[in-house]
Amino acid sequence: MLRTARTLLSLYTSYGLLVLANALFTTLTSLRADLEGFTVQTIGLIMAGYFLGMFLGARYTSYVIQRGGHIRAFAAFASFMSLSPLLHVLFIDPWVWAVLRLIDGFCLAGLFIITESWLNARSDNKTRGSILAIYMVVNYLASGLGQLFLIFTSPDTFEAFAVASICFSLSLMPLMMTRTEAPIPNPVTGFAIRPLLSVAPAGFWGAVCAGSVNAAFFAMAPIYAQNLSFSVQEISFFMMAGVFSGLVLQIPLGKLSDRIERRKVLAGVCFGGLVFSLLMVVQSFFQLPFYLLLINVFCYGSLAFVIYPLSAAHVNDWSDPGQLMQTSSGLLIGYGSGAIFGPLLSSSLMSAFGPAALFAYIALNLLVMMLFALYQSSVAGLQREKMEFVPQPSVQFPVEELFHAAQDDSSPVPEALYDSGDSVDKPVDPISVDEADATQADIAVSDETPIDPVESEPNVEEKSFIEQWEEERLAESERINPTDEPKVKLTDEAPSLSQASIVDDMPKTDEASNVDEASGSKTKKP
Fold first, then answer.
1. 450-474 pLDDT, tens digit each
2. Where exactly are the transmembrane stretches of this chain (predicted)?
């Protein structure tokens, strides 16, 4: 893992600075908008524009990458992101901010696509797991540390936005100086929702739920904490606890979903998130200690950020291998739709009912998803062969590049780990295991060794034990080299021929003796 990290150090450094700057800038935008007197609904509209830009960027930035290449496209997107925080300070207007956040989301989607495609191109089956693990650690670590920058500055000052701009600019330097060759841009693929709805509706609506609650949390949670009269430093710790928690339970819950029905695990995760969301609602009405708020948000984030990876794993279980890209594009549509409407709806509720409405809205989403997952688990058919769970970051818009490759490398989960006595739903006609193995063996033989139409015996080039024994006896009797070709083709049908009869019937060559030692008769050379 360390050797893999060293080879991609420049890319990880650039990506870490990019995520750190974006985490700081997103929280700053929400807090500064509230300080400037923007209504809660207006703040929700601005943040919804950001996620709309990311949704469009996940679809269309590939054209920019194909036109200019990875390094030039990364430089262009990062340059605008460095400019955007300064423009926010210069033009304090909600409509200007909405347009800027729309472009920000578009550029950030392109930056994430470039990073994941680069990592995927520099990995193989042996190293992709390590690369994905480091990628996740960098993602969550940078996102959490970005929140801590609020401790050293204030959102109502120019310096806070200047720090975000500097971090965006610094993300360019490691990648511009790298000697690693940029990958070839991949062809653009469209989005499709029908394949996903037909094979795994629980995966689609799980992505919608994840996009809705995650976007609402990142956009409006700073406003929630600020309306509860917490200081900027406390808000930074509040957001950091929520972000860091996303890495805690992904792997344990993912491995658990490998052993039991994934939709039941998804329903259990939604139930746990529902409980802690309701505790956050209670926190809004009572002046409880701040450490209880941190514990609640940490437990909530550790469950809520697992919804999308579980939904993606469920889709991978039920999708045909040739349709994985199409069904995964449906995940982007679901997540993007939820991420766009999440800030809009939650901000409207907060404007009408106060800060507690944020987590009430999240709890409602989780309740509906929990019931739907349980319903699908009971009526949507038999269980399918599972693929190994692949963890995935949930603190940004998922672009799926590295995740697709990791899913392709994943292996089926042993059926003994999750078999509950139900038959497995297979997409082909049921046949026995022995017949399947025999069929695969016949195919392998036909592909590698052509079979002679006259002789049906396989492996005709290999000599049987009887043939080798007869050949050795013949060579000993005639005093010839054992490696020479046999004078007659011996078959299994005549293993009892005597040595003398074999020699009498075989043709004589120049190397053979003119006197038959077995019979004592002389023969002429041909």
1. 444 444 444 444 455 555 656 666 7
2. 12-31, 43-61, 73-92, 98-119, 131-152, 158-175, 196-223, 235-253, 265-282, 288-310, 331-350, 356-375
